[in-house]
Amino acid sequence: MDTPLIKVGIMAEKEIFFTLEGSYHLESSIINITGKCKAKKAGPCVYLECGEDSWLVPDGLKLIPADPETGKFMLHDVTIGINFHWERKEDQTFKGGLHFITDGDKIHAINELSIEDYLISVISSEMSATSSMELLKAHAVISRSWLLAQIQKNTNLQTEPQKYQTTFRTENELTKWYDREDHTHFDVCADDHCQRYQGITRSTTPLVEKAVKETHGEVLAIDGVICDARFSKCCGGVTEVFENVWEPVNHSYLQKIVDNDFPPEGFSLNLENEDSAKQWIMGNPEAYCNSSDKKVLKQILNDYDQETNDFFRWKVFYSQDELSELVKTRSGVDFGTILDLIPIERGGSARLIKLKIVGTLKTMTIGKELEIRKTLSKSHLYSSAFIVEKQEIAGKIHFILHGAGWGHGVGLCQIGAAVMGDKGFSYHEILLHYFRGAGLERKY
Fold first, then answer.
1. Which residues of the chain have pLDDT under 50?
2. For residue 85, how far is the Cα from the chain centroid?
3. What residues have CB less than 8 Å from 50, skipping those under 6 apart?
4. The whole model's pTM is what?
Protein backbone atom coordinates (compact mmCIF):
# COMPACT_ATOMS: atom_id res chain seq x y z
CA MET A 1 0.00 0.00 0.00
CA ASP A 2 1.36 3.42 -1.00
CA THR A 3 1.43 6.30 1.46
CA PRO A 4 -2.08 7.82 1.21
CA LEU A 5 -2.77 11.38 0.10
CA ILE A 6 -5.34 13.30 2.12
CA LYS A 7 -7.39 16.48 1.71
CA VAL A 8 -7.44 18.96 4.60
CA GLY A 9 -10.00 21.77 4.73
CA ILE A 10 -8.17 24.86 5.99
CA MET A 11 -10.69 27.71 5.79
CA ALA A 12 -13.97 28.84 4.23
CA GLU A 13 -14.62 32.51 3.43
CA LYS A 14 -16.34 34.62 0.78
CA GLU A 15 -12.90 35.73 -0.41
CA ILE A 16 -9.59 34.02 0.30
CA PHE A 17 -6.27 35.82 0.02
CA PHE A 18 -3.15 33.73 -0.43
CA THR A 19 0.47 33.92 -1.58
CA LEU A 20 2.13 31.26 -3.73
CA GLU A 21 5.78 30.95 -2.74
CA GLY A 22 7.33 29.31 -5.77
CA SER A 23 5.79 28.40 -9.11
CA TYR A 24 2.39 26.69 -9.21
CA HIS A 25 0.39 25.61 -12.24
CA LEU A 26 -3.31 25.10 -12.79
CA GLU A 27 -4.21 21.43 -13.10
CA SER A 28 -4.56 20.28 -16.72
CA SER A 29 -3.03 23.50 -18.05
CA ILE A 30 0.34 25.14 -18.68
CA ILE A 31 -0.61 28.32 -16.80
CA ASN A 32 2.03 29.11 -14.18
CA ILE A 33 1.13 31.30 -11.20
CA THR A 34 3.14 32.79 -8.36
CA GLY A 35 2.90 35.67 -5.88
CA LYS A 36 -0.08 37.26 -4.15
CA CYS A 37 -3.53 36.06 -5.22
CA LYS A 38 -7.23 36.16 -4.40
CA ALA A 39 -9.96 33.56 -4.91
CA LYS A 40 -13.72 33.96 -4.73
CA LYS A 41 -16.86 32.33 -6.05
CA ALA A 42 -18.12 33.42 -9.46
CA GLY A 43 -21.32 31.56 -10.28
CA PRO A 44 -20.46 27.88 -10.80
CA CYS A 45 -16.76 28.75 -11.17
CA VAL A 46 -13.88 30.09 -9.10
CA TYR A 47 -12.44 33.51 -9.90
CA LEU A 48 -8.66 33.69 -9.44
CA GLU A 49 -6.78 36.96 -9.47
CA CYS A 50 -2.98 37.08 -9.24
CA GLY A 51 -1.36 40.44 -9.84
CA GLU A 52 -2.70 41.83 -13.09
CA ASP A 53 -3.86 38.42 -14.36
CA SER A 54 -7.19 36.72 -13.64
CA TRP A 55 -8.93 33.51 -14.63
CA LEU A 56 -12.31 31.81 -14.31
CA VAL A 57 -11.54 28.19 -13.46
CA PRO A 58 -13.81 25.20 -12.86
CA ASP A 59 -14.94 24.58 -9.28
CA GLY A 60 -12.46 22.25 -7.56
CA LEU A 61 -9.52 22.84 -9.87
CA LYS A 62 -6.14 22.35 -8.18
CA LEU A 63 -3.04 24.51 -7.99
CA ILE A 64 -0.04 22.16 -8.08
CA PRO A 65 3.52 23.13 -7.08
CA ALA A 66 6.10 22.81 -9.85
CA ASP A 67 8.51 21.44 -7.24
CA PRO A 68 6.69 19.45 -4.53
CA GLU A 69 9.72 19.69 -2.21
CA THR A 70 10.14 23.47 -2.23
CA GLY A 71 6.72 24.75 -3.35
CA LYS A 72 4.58 26.22 -0.59
CA PHE A 73 1.69 28.63 -0.18
CA MET A 74 0.49 31.00 2.53
CA LEU A 75 -3.18 31.46 3.40
CA HIS A 76 -3.91 34.80 5.05
CA ASP A 77 -6.21 35.35 8.07
CA VAL A 78 -6.89 31.70 8.88
CA THR A 79 -9.09 31.41 11.98
CA ILE A 80 -7.69 29.00 14.58
CA GLY A 81 -9.31 27.79 17.80
CA ILE A 82 -12.78 28.29 16.30
CA ASN A 83 -15.29 28.99 19.11
CA PHE A 84 -12.66 28.29 21.76
CA HIS A 85 -11.33 30.86 24.21
CA TRP A 86 -8.07 31.25 22.25
CA GLU A 87 -9.76 31.93 18.86
CA ARG A 88 -7.71 34.26 16.64
CA LYS A 89 -6.55 34.76 13.05
CA GLU A 90 -3.09 34.11 11.70
CA ASP A 91 -1.29 33.65 8.40
CA GLN A 92 -0.37 30.01 7.79
CA THR A 93 2.02 28.34 5.35
CA PHE A 94 1.50 24.90 3.78
CA LYS A 95 3.26 22.38 1.54
CA GLY A 96 1.52 20.46 -1.21
CA GLY A 97 -1.37 21.25 -3.51
CA LEU A 98 -4.07 23.89 -3.06
CA HIS A 99 -7.54 23.77 -4.51
CA PHE A 100 -10.79 25.61 -4.04
CA ILE A 101 -14.33 24.26 -3.80
CA THR A 102 -17.41 26.47 -3.60
CA ASP A 103 -20.13 25.81 -1.04
CA GLY A 104 -23.07 28.20 -0.75
CA ASP A 105 -21.73 31.74 -0.84
CA LYS A 106 -18.31 30.69 0.45
CA ILE A 107 -15.24 29.06 -0.97
CA HIS A 108 -13.17 26.36 0.77
CA ALA A 109 -9.36 26.33 0.61
CA ILE A 110 -8.17 22.71 0.70
CA ASN A 111 -4.62 21.42 1.10
CA GLU A 112 -3.75 18.07 -0.49
CA LEU A 113 -0.64 16.30 0.79
CA SER A 114 0.70 12.95 1.99
CA ILE A 115 -0.52 11.70 5.35
CA GLU A 116 3.06 11.53 6.65
CA ASP A 117 3.72 15.23 5.83
CA TYR A 118 0.40 16.01 7.46
CA LEU A 119 1.43 14.16 10.63
CA ILE A 120 4.65 16.15 10.97
CA SER A 121 2.55 19.30 11.08
CA VAL A 122 -0.17 17.88 13.36
CA ILE A 123 2.33 16.82 15.99
CA SER A 124 3.97 20.25 15.97
CA SER A 125 0.55 21.96 15.98
CA GLU A 126 -1.02 19.82 18.72
CA MET A 127 1.99 20.10 21.02
CA SER A 128 5.47 21.53 21.28
CA ALA A 129 7.97 20.19 18.77
CA THR A 130 10.39 19.87 21.71
CA SER A 131 8.39 17.02 23.32
CA SER A 132 10.02 13.73 24.29
CA MET A 133 10.60 11.22 21.49
CA GLU A 134 8.27 8.64 23.07
CA LEU A 135 5.42 11.16 23.32
CA LEU A 136 5.99 12.25 19.72
CA LYS A 137 5.92 8.65 18.52
CA ALA A 138 2.75 7.91 20.50
CA HIS A 139 1.04 10.95 19.02
CA ALA A 140 2.17 10.06 15.51
CA VAL A 141 0.52 6.65 15.86
CA ILE A 142 -2.78 7.91 17.30
CA SER A 143 -3.05 10.80 14.83
CA ARG A 144 -2.41 8.44 11.90
CA SER A 145 -4.87 5.88 13.31
CA TRP A 146 -7.60 8.44 13.94
CA LEU A 147 -7.36 9.91 10.45
CA LEU A 148 -7.39 6.58 8.60
CA ALA A 149 -10.28 5.39 10.78
CA GLN A 150 -12.25 8.56 9.97
CA ILE A 151 -11.68 8.15 6.24
CA GLN A 152 -12.93 4.55 6.45
CA LYS A 153 -15.87 5.62 8.61
CA ASN A 154 -16.86 8.29 6.11
CA THR A 155 -16.70 5.73 3.29
CA ASN A 156 -18.90 3.37 5.28
CA LEU A 157 -21.44 6.10 6.08
CA GLN A 158 -21.86 6.88 2.38
CA THR A 159 -23.08 3.32 1.82
CA GLU A 160 -25.52 3.34 4.74
CA PRO A 161 -29.20 3.47 3.69
CA GLN A 162 -30.06 5.86 6.54
CA LYS A 163 -28.58 9.32 6.87
CA TYR A 164 -26.15 9.67 9.77
CA GLN A 165 -27.70 11.84 12.50
CA THR A 166 -25.97 13.71 15.29
CA THR A 167 -28.96 15.70 16.59
CA PHE A 168 -32.10 14.42 18.31
CA ARG A 169 -34.58 17.02 19.57
CA THR A 170 -37.94 16.95 21.32
CA GLU A 171 -39.85 19.75 23.04
CA ASN A 172 -38.01 19.17 26.31
CA GLU A 173 -34.77 17.43 25.37
CA LEU A 174 -31.85 17.97 23.00
CA THR A 175 -29.16 15.36 22.40
CA LYS A 176 -26.38 16.41 20.06
CA TRP A 177 -22.79 15.43 19.47
CA TYR A 178 -20.11 16.95 17.31
CA ASP A 179 -17.86 14.87 15.10
CA ARG A 180 -16.40 15.29 11.64
CA GLU A 181 -19.06 13.67 9.44
CA ASP A 182 -20.25 17.09 8.23
CA HIS A 183 -17.03 17.44 6.20
CA THR A 184 -18.09 16.36 2.74
CA HIS A 185 -15.55 18.26 0.61
CA PHE A 186 -12.40 16.98 2.35
CA ASP A 187 -11.15 14.22 4.63
CA VAL A 188 -10.46 16.30 7.71
CA CYS A 189 -10.54 19.94 8.87
CA ALA A 190 -7.55 21.84 10.22
CA ASP A 191 -8.89 22.98 13.59
CA ASP A 192 -9.54 21.40 17.01
CA HIS A 193 -12.85 20.00 15.68
CA CYS A 194 -10.65 17.36 14.01
CA GLN A 195 -6.91 17.56 14.67
CA ARG A 196 -5.07 20.86 14.94
CA TYR A 197 -3.18 21.26 11.65
CA GLN A 198 -1.32 24.46 10.85
CA GLY A 199 0.86 23.42 7.93
CA ILE A 200 4.52 24.33 8.34
CA THR A 201 3.62 27.49 10.29
CA ARG A 202 4.70 25.95 13.60
CA SER A 203 8.39 25.21 13.84
CA THR A 204 9.21 21.53 13.64
CA THR A 205 12.41 19.73 14.55
CA PRO A 206 14.41 16.76 13.31
CA LEU A 207 13.01 14.94 16.36
CA VAL A 208 9.43 15.29 15.07
CA GLU A 209 10.41 14.14 11.61
CA LYS A 210 12.30 11.20 13.16
CA ALA A 211 9.24 10.22 15.25
CA VAL A 212 7.01 10.16 12.15
CA LYS A 213 9.61 8.35 10.05
CA GLU A 214 10.25 5.65 12.68
CA THR A 215 6.51 4.96 13.03
CA HIS A 216 5.84 5.23 9.27
CA GLY A 217 2.51 3.54 8.48
CA GLU A 218 2.07 2.31 12.07
CA VAL A 219 -1.44 2.34 13.57
CA LEU A 220 -3.38 1.04 16.54
CA ALA A 221 -5.61 -1.84 15.47
CA ILE A 222 -7.66 -4.77 16.71
CA ASP A 223 -8.01 -7.81 14.42
CA GLY A 224 -6.79 -5.75 11.49
CA VAL A 225 -9.34 -2.94 12.01
CA ILE A 226 -7.77 0.49 12.61
CA CYS A 227 -8.76 2.05 15.93
CA ASP A 228 -10.64 5.33 16.14
CA ALA A 229 -7.88 6.66 18.42
CA ARG A 230 -9.19 9.76 20.20
CA PHE A 231 -7.25 12.14 22.45
CA SER A 232 -7.81 15.22 24.58
CA LYS A 233 -5.66 17.64 26.59
CA CYS A 234 -6.38 16.43 30.15
CA CYS A 235 -8.73 13.65 31.26
CA GLY A 236 -8.86 14.93 34.84
CA GLY A 237 -7.70 11.60 36.27
CA VAL A 238 -10.07 9.15 34.51
CA THR A 239 -10.78 8.75 30.79
CA GLU A 240 -14.31 8.70 29.37
CA VAL A 241 -16.17 6.08 27.34
CA PHE A 242 -16.59 6.80 23.60
CA GLU A 243 -20.37 6.46 23.39
CA ASN A 244 -20.91 8.96 26.19
CA VAL A 245 -19.41 11.64 23.93
CA TRP A 246 -20.29 10.56 20.38
CA GLU A 247 -22.61 8.04 18.70
CA PRO A 248 -23.87 5.06 20.73
CA VAL A 249 -21.21 2.62 19.49
CA ASN A 250 -19.01 0.74 21.92
CA HIS A 251 -15.29 0.54 21.17
CA SER A 252 -13.53 -1.94 23.44
CA TYR A 253 -10.34 0.15 23.38
CA LEU A 254 -12.03 3.44 24.40
CA GLN A 255 -13.16 2.69 27.92
CA LYS A 256 -12.84 4.17 31.39
CA ILE A 257 -9.16 4.11 32.39
CA VAL A 258 -7.63 5.43 35.61
CA ASP A 259 -4.76 7.72 34.55
CA ASN A 260 -2.33 6.18 36.99
CA ASP A 261 -0.65 2.87 37.82
CA PHE A 262 -3.15 2.32 40.64
CA PRO A 263 -6.56 3.65 41.77
CA PRO A 264 -6.07 6.79 43.91
CA GLU A 265 -6.69 6.24 47.61
CA GLY A 266 -9.69 7.78 49.34
CA PHE A 267 -11.93 8.04 46.26
CA SER A 268 -14.81 6.00 44.92
CA LEU A 269 -14.44 5.51 41.16
CA ASN A 270 -18.18 5.04 40.73
CA LEU A 271 -18.20 8.51 39.17
CA GLU A 272 -21.63 8.09 37.61
CA ASN A 273 -22.84 8.56 41.19
CA GLU A 274 -23.39 12.20 42.15
CA ASP A 275 -21.76 11.97 45.61
CA SER A 276 -18.72 10.18 44.21
CA ALA A 277 -18.46 12.68 41.35
CA LYS A 278 -18.54 15.58 43.80
CA GLN A 279 -15.82 14.07 45.98
CA TRP A 280 -13.69 13.38 42.88
CA ILE A 281 -14.07 16.82 41.29
CA MET A 282 -13.53 18.68 44.56
CA GLY A 283 -10.54 16.47 45.40
CA ASN A 284 -6.96 16.27 44.21
CA PRO A 285 -6.37 12.63 43.24
CA GLU A 286 -2.99 11.40 42.06
CA ALA A 287 -2.87 11.02 38.27
CA TYR A 288 -0.33 11.29 35.51
CA CYS A 289 -2.16 14.38 34.23
CA ASN A 290 -2.20 16.00 37.69
CA SER A 291 1.04 17.82 37.00
CA SER A 292 2.31 21.37 37.40
CA ASP A 293 5.76 20.58 35.98
CA LYS A 294 6.25 23.44 33.54
CA LYS A 295 8.95 21.55 31.63
CA VAL A 296 6.53 18.71 30.92
CA LEU A 297 3.48 20.91 30.32
CA LYS A 298 5.41 22.95 27.77
CA GLN A 299 5.66 19.78 25.66
CA ILE A 300 1.87 19.77 25.22
CA LEU A 301 0.80 23.38 25.59
CA ASN A 302 1.66 25.74 22.74
CA ASP A 303 1.89 29.48 23.45
CA TYR A 304 -1.89 30.09 23.25
CA ASP A 305 -2.67 26.89 25.19
CA GLN A 306 -0.49 28.13 28.03
CA GLU A 307 -3.02 30.91 28.56
CA THR A 308 -4.98 28.14 30.33
CA ASN A 309 -3.36 27.54 33.73
CA ASP A 310 -5.91 25.52 35.68
CA PHE A 311 -6.97 22.48 33.73
CA PHE A 312 -6.83 19.50 36.13
CA ARG A 313 -9.29 21.29 38.45
CA TRP A 314 -10.98 24.62 37.66
CA LYS A 315 -13.82 27.01 38.62
CA VAL A 316 -16.19 29.24 36.66
CA PHE A 317 -18.39 31.91 38.32
CA TYR A 318 -21.66 33.29 36.93
CA SER A 319 -24.23 35.61 38.40
CA GLN A 320 -27.80 34.47 37.80
CA ASP A 321 -28.29 37.26 35.26
CA GLU A 322 -25.02 36.41 33.46
CA LEU A 323 -25.91 32.72 33.25
CA SER A 324 -29.46 33.41 32.05
CA GLU A 325 -28.25 35.68 29.24
CA LEU A 326 -25.40 33.34 28.31
CA VAL A 327 -27.65 30.27 28.01
CA LYS A 328 -30.18 32.20 25.94
CA THR A 329 -27.47 33.47 23.58
CA ARG A 330 -25.65 30.17 23.21
CA SER A 331 -28.65 27.82 22.97
CA GLY A 332 -31.07 30.09 21.12
CA VAL A 333 -33.70 29.13 23.71
CA ASP A 334 -35.23 31.65 26.12
CA PHE A 335 -35.29 29.85 29.47
CA GLY A 336 -36.13 33.07 31.29
CA THR A 337 -34.21 33.40 34.53
CA ILE A 338 -32.11 30.30 35.20
CA LEU A 339 -33.17 28.77 38.51
CA ASP A 340 -31.10 25.60 38.54
CA LEU A 341 -28.69 23.31 36.69
CA ILE A 342 -29.44 19.68 37.58
CA PRO A 343 -27.15 16.76 36.66
CA ILE A 344 -29.21 13.97 35.05
CA GLU A 345 -26.58 11.50 33.81
CA ARG A 346 -22.81 11.23 34.15
CA GLY A 347 -20.22 9.08 32.39
CA GLY A 348 -17.42 7.06 33.90
CA SER A 349 -15.11 10.08 34.26
CA ALA A 350 -17.84 12.15 36.00
CA ARG A 351 -18.44 14.05 32.75
CA LEU A 352 -22.06 15.09 32.36
CA ILE A 353 -23.87 13.41 29.49
CA LYS A 354 -27.23 15.02 30.30
CA LEU A 355 -27.92 18.27 32.18
CA LYS A 356 -31.34 19.70 33.01
CA ILE A 357 -31.58 23.49 32.72
CA VAL A 358 -34.45 24.88 34.80
CA GLY A 359 -35.70 28.39 34.00
CA THR A 360 -38.74 30.50 34.75
CA LEU A 361 -39.96 30.14 31.15
CA LYS A 362 -38.52 26.81 30.04
CA THR A 363 -37.06 23.59 31.43
CA MET A 364 -35.02 21.41 29.11
CA THR A 365 -32.48 18.59 29.29
CA ILE A 366 -29.44 18.91 27.01
CA GLY A 367 -26.49 16.67 26.05
CA LYS A 368 -24.01 15.33 25.07
CA GLU A 369 -20.88 16.70 26.68
CA LEU A 370 -19.83 19.27 24.08
CA GLU A 371 -23.36 20.66 23.76
CA ILE A 372 -23.29 21.21 27.53
CA ARG A 373 -19.87 22.87 27.33
CA LYS A 374 -20.94 25.15 24.48
CA THR A 375 -24.18 26.18 26.19
CA LEU A 376 -22.52 27.19 29.46
CA SER A 377 -19.64 29.24 28.09
CA LYS A 378 -18.93 31.99 25.57
CA SER A 379 -16.56 29.50 23.93
CA HIS A 380 -16.40 26.06 25.60
CA LEU A 381 -16.15 25.01 29.21
CA TYR A 382 -12.93 23.11 29.72
CA SER A 383 -14.97 19.93 30.19
CA SER A 384 -18.42 18.70 31.20
CA ALA A 385 -17.03 17.09 34.38
CA PHE A 386 -18.35 19.67 36.82
CA ILE A 387 -20.62 20.07 39.81
CA VAL A 388 -22.87 23.07 40.40
CA GLU A 389 -22.78 25.14 43.57
CA LYS A 390 -25.32 27.91 44.18
CA GLN A 391 -24.48 30.76 46.53
CA GLU A 392 -26.33 33.88 47.61
CA ILE A 393 -24.03 36.91 47.49
CA ALA A 394 -25.35 40.39 48.39
CA GLY A 395 -28.88 39.07 48.06
CA LYS A 396 -28.35 37.64 44.56
CA ILE A 397 -27.89 34.05 43.39
CA HIS A 398 -24.55 33.06 41.87
CA PHE A 399 -23.61 29.77 40.20
CA ILE A 400 -20.14 28.29 40.68
CA LEU A 401 -19.10 25.43 38.41
CA HIS A 402 -16.31 23.31 39.91
CA GLY A 403 -14.76 21.26 37.13
CA ALA A 404 -12.16 18.63 36.23
CA GLY A 405 -10.09 18.13 33.08
CA TRP A 406 -9.77 19.81 29.71
CA GLY A 407 -11.55 18.26 26.73
CA HIS A 408 -13.81 15.26 26.15
CA GLY A 409 -11.50 12.89 28.02
CA VAL A 410 -11.76 9.95 25.57
CA GLY A 411 -8.65 7.96 24.65
CA LEU A 412 -5.16 9.32 25.17
CA CYS A 413 -4.72 12.09 27.73
CA GLN A 414 -2.02 14.33 26.22
CA ILE A 415 -0.74 15.76 29.50
CA GLY A 416 -0.81 12.32 31.11
CA ALA A 417 1.09 10.88 28.14
CA ALA A 418 3.67 13.67 28.39
CA VAL A 419 4.25 12.83 32.05
CA MET A 420 4.56 9.12 31.19
CA GLY A 421 7.12 9.93 28.50
CA ASP A 422 9.07 12.05 30.97
CA LYS A 423 9.05 9.14 33.44
CA GLY A 424 10.67 6.86 30.86
CA PHE A 425 7.71 4.90 29.49
CA SER A 426 8.04 3.79 25.85
CA TYR A 427 5.51 4.87 23.26
CA HIS A 428 4.19 1.30 23.17
CA GLU A 429 3.56 1.44 26.91
CA ILE A 430 1.92 4.86 26.68
CA LEU A 431 -0.43 3.73 23.92
CA LEU A 432 -1.38 0.46 25.58
CA HIS A 433 -2.09 2.28 28.85
CA TYR A 434 -4.79 4.39 27.19
CA PHE A 435 -6.00 1.96 24.48
CA ARG A 436 -6.46 -1.35 26.33
CA GLY A 437 -6.66 -4.40 24.12
CA ALA A 438 -5.30 -2.69 20.99
CA GLY A 439 -2.05 -3.57 19.26
CA LEU A 440 0.36 -1.90 16.84
CA GLU A 441 0.28 -2.80 13.13
CA ARG A 442 2.08 -1.33 10.12
CA LYS A 443 -0.40 -0.62 7.30
CA TYR A 444 2.00 0.77 4.65
1. 304-306
2. 14
3. 20, 33, 34, 35, 36, 37, 38
4. 0.87
